[in-house]
Amino acid sequence: MVIAKTKSLTNKLLGRTSISLSGVDVEPARIYIAQYWPKLTRFHPRDDESLLGLPKPYLVPAYEAGHEFDFNELYYWDSYFMVQGMLDGQHKELVMGILEDLISLYKRFKVIPNASRTYLTGRSQPPVLTSFILDVYHTYKFDNRWLQENIEVAKSEYQSVWMGTTKPNIRKVYQGLSRYYDFNHLNDLAEAESGWDFTPRFNHHCLNYLPVDLNSLLHKYETDFAYVAGLLGNRQEVDHWENAALIRRETMNELLWSETRKLYYDYNFVKESRGWVSSLAAYYPMWAGIVSKNQAQALVNNLRRFENKGGLSTTDALTFGQRVPGAMPAQWGYPNGWAPLHFIVVKGLQRYGYHEDARRIAIKWLKTNLDWFNKYGVFLEKYNVVQPEKPPVKGVYPSQTGFGWTNAVFERFCQEFIDQPNQ
Questions:
Q1: Is 391 inside any structural domain?
Q2: Which residue in 331, 66, 312 sits closest to 195, CA to CA?
Q3: Crossing angle, helix 23-40 and helix 404-417, to 10 degrees?
Q4: If DSSP codes are grouped into helix, strand and coil, which group holds residue 142?
Q5: In a domain, 274, yes or no
Q6: With 90 as the cut, is the pLDDT of residue 36 above it?
Q7: Higher pLDDT, 397 or 44
Q8: For 187-196, what is the mean pLDDT?
Q9: Checking phi first, is residue 95 left (phi over 0); if not, alpha (psi -120 to 50) or beta?
Q10: Which helix (H) or strand (E) holds 208?
Q11: Is residue 331 in a domain?
Q12: Is the separation of the CB atoms in 116 and 104 below 8 Å?
């Protein structure tokens, strides 16, 4: 009885009590999202001052009339998460066009820039090109010729950008693993390439770290290359990419996995030691299929470090001694939660069969988004998951509303967990 009461209290403190949402509950928000996509759609076929021309219409992260922070450019990883809410026949032309735009940027600059601005070509963003290609391939049933043509671009990006060892792409730096980088060789700009701008993960020395998320994404590239080679009947290439993935997995488990804390941590290769910040980046290996069954169970057990009333916080709560004096505001940290990280964690949990945990977290995130929408009529780029009724912690740029990837993940979770309640 005491054990049962203790477990009940723990679940209540973590917000693990059962939450239910119906199609009726989310319908107004989904209508709002569907009507919002045109506000985020841009088409700029020619270069215009710093804005790069792209062949097809695309989505920008946010739009708010009169807001001081205006978007007109396409962003790399934002685009991937935004299309997760529109992988259907209705949006086929837009989704295909965004992929074409990303590939055109690579062909022109030999990198997919942070965004389609001349001044943002010195760095990229977290690499998601193979995942984008395969999502499109499976959704729209393209033939293998289309797949081969597009995957060759991803191979080139993988090799020249993410496995580069000389300027402008000095990313593969230690035991075959890679780091985030920027042509200017500045830590804060390399951190901007991570998409986590800014976070306590790297202690303002991003160039010194082998990030968990980046190397998980590159493992996903390698396994995706092996998968495609198998579809194309190239057994020798399958072996090559499976071996590359195996080597990366073994190195990551040696350097980045803490057997004591049962989490993955970014690795400071200069100091040859793991970082100390526990973050949701630790769940990228689960999403990428890197972890063993025992590691998966340990990661599920460690959700308690991050799970709060409103969802998953980006990092666990930092003690006072861990805070960096004079540091930039760390919006990619406690108590904020972000849509793309919830998507990664939920997909990782599903991959390893933890469907109940995936559902709980997805519904909790949906409710946080929905409660704010019902009260204020907007979606945010991030939320305070510890106190969902309060605004999120601000970063170095103004907080955004009407946010693309929040809208998309909300719609995707509705499709999976409300439209199909037995998922």
A1: yes
A2: 331
A3: 150
A4: coil
A5: no
A6: yes
A7: 44
A8: 97
A9: alpha
A10: none
A11: yes
A12: no
